Amino acid sequence: MRTSSFLIAPALAGLLALAACDQPKFRDKGDSATAPSAAAPAADAAPKARVIPSKAEPVPGPPEWAKGVMGKNLRAAYPKTGICKGNTDIVDVKFTGDPAGTQLLGWGWDVPNKVRVAKVVLVDKSLNIVGAGGGGVERLDVPQALPEITDKMTGWTAVTRLTAGPLDAYGVVGDGDAVCVLGHIEF
């Protein structure tokens, strides 16, 4: 029995280390990717809940290119599937005006073409397009974590009139007729 527990412990430790790996996460410009500062809370302190900033103004409308696909089913608008790496990181802003809505942040990389994702659509649980946005936001953490990604501008923002619920983000790639998964978020 003792011998088997000595063999299991290193394997379990390795699996736990792999489980800790994740995609790059959004960092405020003031955050450091290095060791925690001396002012960091103790390890046993409860983490603070992130407060989502709000703006007392209407949510911006979708980009001009997306107006023709808003409300359509994802597969009707984009019948092909592309290959991306990416993530949907956070709800960045809540708009409380009329209409209300949210802005999301993430990052995306078109793997075969080795370029940042320039267009993003957001879909609800029925796969209807309910939001859109674009790439070109600075994300220094992405090439640091994934050296095969050479562009520091892989971040994207997208807006939707939804103020709560699940959303999936897709990058528009290929000849504009394909999408790739960029992540899921619930808020």
Task: Write a structural description.
By secondary structure, the protein is an alpha+beta fold. It has 3 helices and 10 strands, in the order αβαββββββαβββ. The chain has helices spanning 2-19, 74-77, 141-145; strands at residues 54-55, 80-81, 84-95, 101-110, 115-116, 119-123, 129-137, 155-160, 166-173, 178-186. Strands 1, 2, 3, 4, 5, 6, 7, 8, 9 and 10 form a 10-stranded mixed β-sheet that branches. A hairpin with a 5-residue loop joins β3 (84-95) and β4. It is globular and about 40 Å long. The N and C termini lie far apart (47 Å). Residues 1-23 and 25-41 have low confidence and may be disordered.
Give the DSSP E fraction (strand runs of 2 or more residues). Answer: 25-35%
Mean pLDDT across the residues is 83
The N- to C-terminal Cα distance equals: 47 Å
Elements, N to C (H/E): HEHEEEEEEHEEE
**Oligomerization category of the chains in this entry:** single chain
**What Rg do the Cα atoms give?**
19 Å
Q: Count up the helices.
A: 3
Shape: globular
The number of strands is 10
Largest sheet: 10 strands, mixed
Q: How does the helix and strand content classify structurally?
A: alpha+beta
**Fraction in helix:** 10-25%
> Which residues sit in consecutive blocks of at least 5 with pLDDT less than 50?
1-23, 25-41
